[in-house]
# Entry
Amino acid sequence: MNKELEKFRDKAREFATAELAPYAAQIDKDDEFPSDMWTKIGDANLMGITIPKEYGGEALSYMHHVIVVEEFSRASGSAGFAYAAHSNICVDNLYKSGTEAQRQKYLPKLISGEHVGALAMSEPNAGSDVVGSMECHAEKKGNVWVANGTKRWITNGPYAETFIVYMRTAGKEAGSKSITAFLVEKGMAGFTQGIKKDKLGMRGAGNCELYFKDCEIPEENVLGEVNKGVALLMNGLDSERLILCAGPLGIMQAAMDTVIPYVQERVQFGQAIANFQMVQAKIAEMYTKLEASRGMVYRLGENFTEHKNRNRDAAAACFFSSECSTSVALDAIQLMGGRGYMNEEIPGRLLRDSKIYEIGGGTNEIRKMIIARDLTKPAKK
# Structure
């Protein structure tokens, strides 16, 4: 990693250490993310990492974005997760697919932190097969689209002001050419944000259902082209997976930060348990999983910067780092024994926060399918 990126990491780490880490346990306990934290992140110029400066962004690379999510997640898993949902899954996608008018209208407030963003794709009966099973739909009537249906598991949903929402706009027989993306604003008539769900982990990164009942969405709020939302969706999934990969890196580093001092200080049988070979073996395994994951994710980030990304590589990095993160968090609990099992300690939170990375952004089972299908597809003649 070059000096410029290391300097940028120092900036992100300094912010995370000062502004996020002191509140991590409280965020988890109360299931509340400090509302003023969004503007603090914006004031620190850490929000619109990949967005051009004319919209308030920093015009930096995806690798810079990876670093911020990693450092935020090291301080607080839920802060890193909520930030990634806002800054990449909403903001980056909006910039890539939005018109100039849409960019000018939405990006400045999203990048300053005045507004929070979210993306709504999943539904009660549409998860991994979201395109085939999507029921939330919109029908064109005059110069508006009238939307009806429900979206579920929407990170940042309870408090977001700007949503990218995927809806069916043609019959299912049209397949991938039946989905359209819309920009939906908080307060639109017929649009309701549900109550916050009580989650296992990533507490503070609020999650809720979204309800549409004859919600009129202006024609100018179509994101991209009508019935071509799947292409927009797939275009954003690889960068989403890259950015989400950074969360497990931060969580694993937090586990190492917690466990290494503990095993050096904890005395049993007259010596620090760090001297025991079984403890040393587990520490070595944790470190190896972290560094192997970091190597995959950083290479992926560099490839994105050079426009050399491949679908299978994003899926592989996400699959591997997420499983390693859950494993490392479990090892941290084991090494700290009874103390590690207590909710007042850090490892349990790391475990609960890790698990979502095996599910969100496409489950690990789907990621394996992507990898295998790409490797075994017939060669072009």
Remarks:
- The chain has three domains: 3-115, 119-228, 231-376.
- The chain has a mean pLDDT of 96.
- The radius of gyration is 21 Å.
